[in-house]
Amino acid sequence: MSTLLTRLSLFSGIVKEFAPKSNSKLKSISTTRLNPQHHLWSLLCDTSQSNNVEDCKPQFFYLLAFTQKGDHSVPVTVLVTQEMLYLLNEDHQWSKSLPSTTPEEGVFTGSERATIEETQPISCVSSVNLFASDPCRVNINIYDEIEKEEKTWFLQAGSAELAQGLVDWVRTQWEAMFGVKLTACFLEARS
C-alpha cells in the first residue's frame, strides 16, 4: 500500500511540474465586510423593525454558482436568508467608492451592482435534487403559490461541499418553518 502511495505521490509531483503555469495578473482576492454600507445589506437585514442597525445580526448563505440560461451556463449569486432565496446577478469588479441601494426596484447601483433575477420564499421550496453523477449540481424545486406554477433553479456549485452547504442551509431553514424533514432526493441520471 505504501508503495502505491509513494508512486502516486511521485506521479503527482511530475504532473505538477509539467502543468502549464498560470499567467494571471490576480495578486490576491479581497474580502468585504458586511455592514450597513454593503450592497446586499437591505436584503439581509430588515431595519424597518428597529432603527438601530447594530441590532441586525444577519444569518445567510452566500454562494457563487452557475445556472442554465438557454444553451449556456451563466454565473449567478445564490443568497439564502432564513426566509428567502435570491438569485442575483452581481458585478464583482473592485472599486473604492461605496454603493447605494434601491432594493424596491430590485437593482443596486454604485460600483458593486446586483440585480435580483428572482426571489422566492423558502416556504415555497417543494424539494431538492442532488445528482450522484455530478455532486456539484443542485436543483431546487419551487412551487410558486402566487403564480400557481412549479419552477426549478438549476444550479452548479464550485464543489460538492458548497452544493451540500446550500442544501443543508435551505433544509435547516425549511425544517424550522414546518417542523418536518425536507428530504433531498439523490438522482442517478442527469435529467
UniProtKB/TrEMBL annotation:
Residues 34-185 form the STK11-interacting protein C-terminal PH domain. It holds the Pfam family PH_S11IP_C. InterPro entries: PH_S11IP_C (IPR057676). This is STK11-interacting protein C-terminal PH domain-containing protein.
